[in-house]
Amino acid sequence: SPADVDSSKGKELAIVHEEDAYAQTPQVATEGSDKVPGMYWMSPKQDVISSMNRMQRQKVANFTVGRDNVGYVSFKVPVDLTSIDLDEIFGGIVVLETRSATVYPNAAKKPPVGKGLNVPATISLDQSWPRGRDKRPTIDQKRLNKHIERLKKIPDTTFVDYNSETGVWKF
């Protein structure tokens, strides 16, 4: 079962930039490199949420924001979307870039823990491959094991899973 980014210890959702340690984001996808980030999406869909009444928008269950070729943030508790402009979610409140997920990048606009989207979530990031010195993904088992240990030690995260076949990291 997925673990969450633990906000119960007075910590806020972590800003995780996995690439800071050892990778760079290329502008174009080529053989063996990163896929270009695609379109943002949400579930339930934006038009479904827009058609909800105020009571329904106070407790939107299974809310997930994602971006093709990047990953997603799945909120573990029902979220209150009554005071959130849905048009500001994509790239504003939730920013998904290659190997990076940020919820509320602007600290001045971040609500208290437990409010809005500042709640426990599971994050899944695509393309989280271990990189060799040439910044390209590697399948070397020793590097792979070291990579998984590095992912497990990233501050303010709870490691859930790493799929070495797909390069998807969940925390």
Outline the structure in words:
With 171 residues, the chain is an alpha+beta fold. It has one domain (16-170): c-terminal autoproteolytic domain of nucleoporin nup98 (2-Layer Sandwich). Helix content is 15%, strand content 20%. The protein contains four helices and nine strands; from the N terminus they run βαβααβββββαββ. The strands form two sheets. A six-stranded antiparallel beta sheet has the order 2-3-4-7-9-8, with no helix packed on it. Strand 3 (64-67) and strand 4 form a beta hairpin. The longest helix has 12 residues, at 141-152. The radius of gyration is 17 Å and the shape is elongated.
List the helices and strands and how they pair.
Layout: E1 16-17, H1 19-22, E2 40-43, H2 46-50, H3 54-58, E3 64-67, E4 71-75, E5 94-97, E6 100-103, E7 121-125, H4 141-152, E8 161-163, E9 168-170
Antiparallel strand pairs: 1-6, 2-3, 3-4, 4-7, 5-6, 7-9, 8-9
